[in-house]
Amino acid sequence: MQKRFFLRASVLAITAMGATYSIAQENVFKIGLILPMTGQQASTGRQIEAAAKLYMAQNGDTVAGKKIQLIVKDDTSIPDVTKRLAQELVVNDKVNVLAGFGITPSALATAPIATQSKTPQVVMAAATSSITQASPYIVRTSFTLPQAAVSMADWAPKNGIKTVVTLVSDYGPGLDAEKYFKERFQFNGGQVPESLRVPLRGPDFAPFLQKVRDLKPDALFVFVPSGAGAAVMKQFLERGMDKAGIKLIGTGDVTDDDQLNDMGDGALGVVTAHHYSTDHPSALNTKFVEAFGKANSGLRPNFMAVGGYDGMRVIYEALRASKGQGGGDALLAAMKGQIFESPRGPMFIDAQTRDVVQNIYMRKVERKNGQLYNVEFAVIKDVKDPGKAK
Ligand code: VNL
């Protein structure tokens, strides 16, 4: 009798514990944030993690009755590692959303997992046009290289630049930048005598820059990923390219706000096309830059931070709109078509392509209050990814 009672009591206790456990689980909403926190792309990871945490600090960690849990994983920007981490996050941690993705190969390696598990994959950094086509569960909050490259290819020939050599990192976003810059620039009457590609890992820019010096174009158009711009700038100046009359132009990755202020006066006057500048003059951005700096001992948010901040916004609002019901498909549906003001300016997630539609700004490096900034001087409004038209 005693024994039987004890047995029954413990079964009850176990059942009750199980119920508490699953209620606790049901009330948690997990975001698996996979980022390069170490290695060559570590600044991208640091910026996005800081931005995601700022968003949560400002907007609370409870949405639609669920407690938001952010699980940060370091993929060291090795795509096989990204894929394994994504798998573990989906299978073991049962995350509701996968997010982050510092470089294109990491985003692509995760796409099949998002598709199979019907988990929305919010790409906050990687920017090759084709990424959103790799899974119907991908939504992007960063930008695409064709958006920036085409804008630059329209501006340059109107501003005295008739010959351009391109220099890009030899992988997805670099090839997009090269192709879309070149096609549009040539269409506009410009000439591209040479297109150079440098390896993504451990690039040595010196021999390439020497070649550019010999070719003596009006300008050198550069794409390198966030974090590599300072090295290009240093070598460009060391070789006296500017003094030889060659202008440096590019997508805004090269004058990345994370590094720009340490590049020195040699960076003054460099013109780039991009979707975000720390200096973007809006009340919302001023508040964002201030709060980000305050929370991160003075760090400037760059375009990666904005991709992370807006990605969190897209996730929060999708959870709110779907009332925490309906799983991955309901979340995805509520991500599509979101339209809001970002620190970058107006932003829209195209429901058809799941890609970002946004302004691209022409900016010039200037010194303001003693600091170097990408100062916006023209805007191309509501730019859709030109890569989607093909
Ligand atoms: C990518 C594109 C990465 C632009 C970047 O920095 C960037 C990418 C890490 O798609 O791999 O600035």
Fold and architecture overview:
There is one protein chain. With 390 residues, the chain is α/β, with parallel strands linked by helices. The chain is 42% helix and 23% strand. The chain contains twelve helices and 15 strands. The strands form two sheets. Strands 7, 8, 9, 10, 11, 12, 13, 14 and 15 form a nine-stranded mixed sheet that branches. Helix 4 (104-117) links the parallel strand 4 and strand 5. Helix 2 (42-59) packs across helix 11 (303-321) and helix 5 runs parallel beside helix 6 (172-187). The longest helix is centred in the first third of the chain and has 25 residues, at 2-26. The protein is globular and about 65 Å long. The termini are far apart. 50% of the residues are buried. The model has no long low-confidence stretch (mean pLDDT 94). 4-hydroxy-3-methoxybenzoate is lined by residues 41, 44, 102-104, 125-128, 172-173, 225-226, 253.
What characteristics describe this protein?
single chain; 390 residues; alpha/beta; 9-stranded mixed beta sheet; 6-stranded mixed beta sheet; 23% strand; binds 4-hydroxy-3-methoxybenzoate
Write the layout of secondary structure elements.
Elements: H1 2-26, E1 28-35, H2 42-59, E2 62-63, E3 66-74, H3 79-91, E4 97-100, H4 104-117, E5 121-123, E6 138-140, H5 145-155, E7 164-169, H6 172-187, E8 195-198, H7 206-215, E9 219-223, H8 229-238, E10 247-251, H9 257-260, E11 271-274, H10 283-295, H11 303-321, H12 327-335, E12 339-342, E13 345-349, E14 356-368, E15 371-383
Parallel strand pairs: 1-3, 1-4, 4-5, 5-6, 7-8, 7-9, 9-10, 10-11
Antiparallel strand pairs: 2-3, 11-14, 12-13, 13-14, 14-15
The protein binds 4-hydroxy-3-methoxybenzoate.
Residues 41, 44, 102-104, 125-128, 172-173, 225-226, 253 line the site of 4-hydroxy-3-methoxybenzoate.
